[in-house]
Every structure is written in structure tokens, then in C-alpha cells.
């Protein structure tokens, strides 16, 4: 669990105070397993992992300006974007930064910025990373988190703090909570995330299978091995460097 507050006191939680000039307070949410290839290829379109395209501007997300960097005693940096999103790289991956529109896999653990840090999404414990096109926002991700994802290298782990106006400014009622989400979200509540972009490789076909598979794993385990890593037969997931 991330310490609270995980950002230095001088920076302060970005959920406090009004949005930066030009931001609309009403911005809301944009909004080891084996899967058969026949089924896996359909998962993205059917929203099995909570995926659907949103109307947020991918180009705008990619070009979010950094307005501040603060060096910490341990050598890490807190980066603050013009939107109010702040992040720290917990691990910089050895992969490349994916292009907008690339299909990526991400493990996400999200916390409400409240006492005891209640977890509202945790794909690690669910055993199902999110599968989505970079620049879109599946269930469990928010506009603010998408901004932070846009500059991550494959294999990276990043701690992200999202202001309420880039999360769920109107909240999320219990009746609308659907997997992978676990909890209702209070109105104007800030969010914190740990997010990891997985790396994938093309594995040879096994046991007489005609088609090969994509194997996805953390950066530390790359290149992925059949014996211990996530096996995801989704043809749309490109092999990665």
C-alpha cells in the first residue's frame, strides 16, 4: 500500500482546491491465465475487461505539459502535470513508450483518498490485467490516470495521484459499481493509483497448435516464460520491445 500522504507535504494532495484555469469542473470519468484464442480475440470488443472507447482527446492527453518536478531525498522525482495530475516512477521499465492506439495490458490498484485507503480496484488480486487501447479509458481507469499512462515505458510501475475533477467528480453510486471496480466512489473524491504496464512477447505454438500465443509479464520476468507468466491469447496485442 502507498504511504499516506505519499507525496511530500510541500506538494500536497492534488484533490484539494479548484481545477487549474480552463478546466471544467464537470469533467467526469471517460469513462498466470490461459484464454482460448477464439474467445480472447473477442474479449476486447465485448468489454470482458471493462473496455470501451471514450471521447477524451488522445492527442491532448499525450501532450499534457509538465509544470513542475520536485526531487526527493531518495533521488526520485514527483512530476506535476498542468492538469493537476502528479506521479512518481517507482520503476522505469526497459520497454518502449507505446504509441496511442496500441493495445496494452496494465495492472491497476486504485485507492480512495480517505482514511485507511480503501481499495476500489485491484487487478493484481483479481488476476486479470486490463486490456485496452492506449488513449481510451476502460472501467477502473480515469482521465487523469490516462494522462499519466501516456508517457510510461512498457514494464514501468508508476504511483499516480488524480484530482477529483479528472476522476469521478460526480461520484459513482453503489448500483453502478461493476467489475473490476469494487466500491462506490464519493463525489469529488481524489484517487491514487499504482499502475504497471506489462510487457508481451510472441511465444511459439505448443502441443501441435497452429498459432502462437502472446505471453505477458512484468519487466523483471521479461522475456516471459510459459511456466509462470500471464498467457493471453489476444491477437490484437502486439509483440513488444
Question: Any overview of this molecule?
Answer:
The longest helix is centred in the first third of the chain and has 10 residues, at 37-46. This protein has a domain at 56-200: Roll (Chitinase A, domain 3), CATH 3.10.50.40. β4 and β5 form a beta hairpin. It has helices at residues 37-46, 58-62, 123-126, 143-149; strands spanning 66-71, 77-81, 86-91, 103-112, 119-122, 130-133, 157-162, 191-197, 199-203, 213-217, 230-232. It is α+β, with helices and mostly antiparallel strands and 241 residues long. The protein is built from 4 helices and 11 strands, in the order ααβββββαβαβββββ. This is peptidylprolyl isomerase. It catalyses: [protein]-peptidylproline (omega=180) = [protein]-peptidylproline (omega=0).
Amino acid at each position: 500500500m502507498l504511504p499516506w500522504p505519499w507525496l511530500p507535504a510541500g506538494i500536497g494532495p492534488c484533490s484539494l482546491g479548484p481545477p487549474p484555469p480552463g478546466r471544467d469542473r464537470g469533467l467526469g470519468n471517460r469513462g498466470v491465465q490461459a484464454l482460448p484464442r477464439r474467445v480472447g480475440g473477442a474479449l476486447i470488443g465485448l468489454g470482458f475487461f471493462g473496455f470501451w472507447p471514450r471521447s477524451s482527446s488522445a492527442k491532448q492527453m499525450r501532450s499534457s505539459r509538465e509544470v513542475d518536478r520536485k526531487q526527493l531525498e531518495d533521488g526520485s522525482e514527483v512530476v506535476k502535470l498542468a492538469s493537476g495530475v502528479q506521479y512518481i516512477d517507482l520503476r522505469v521499465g526497459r520497454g518502449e513508450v507505446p504509441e496511442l492506439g496500441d493495445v496494452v495490458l496494465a495492472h491497476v490498484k486504485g485507492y480512495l483518498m480517505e482514511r485507511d485507503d480503501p481499495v476500489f480496484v485491484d487487478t493484481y488480486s483479481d488476476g486479470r490485467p486490463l486490456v485496452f487501447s492506449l488513449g481510451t479509458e476502460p472501467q477502473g481507469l480515469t482521465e487523469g490516470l490516462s494522462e499519466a499512462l501516456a508517457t510510461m515505458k512498457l514494464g514501468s510501475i508508476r504511483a499516480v495521484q488524480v484530482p477529483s475533477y479528472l476522476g469521478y467528480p460526480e461520484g459513482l453510486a453503489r448500483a453502478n459499481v461493476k467489475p473490476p471496480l469494487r466500491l462506490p466512489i464519493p463525489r469529488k473524491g481524489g484517487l491514487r493509483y499504482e499502475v504497471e504496464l506489462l510487457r508481451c512477447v510472441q511465444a511459439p505454438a505448443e502441443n501441435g497448435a497452429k498459432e502462437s500465443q502472446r505471453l505477458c509479464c512484468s519487466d523483471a520476468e521479461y522475456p516471459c516464460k510459459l511456466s509462470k507468466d500471464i498467457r493471453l491469447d489476444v491477437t490484437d496485442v502486439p509483440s513488444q520491445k
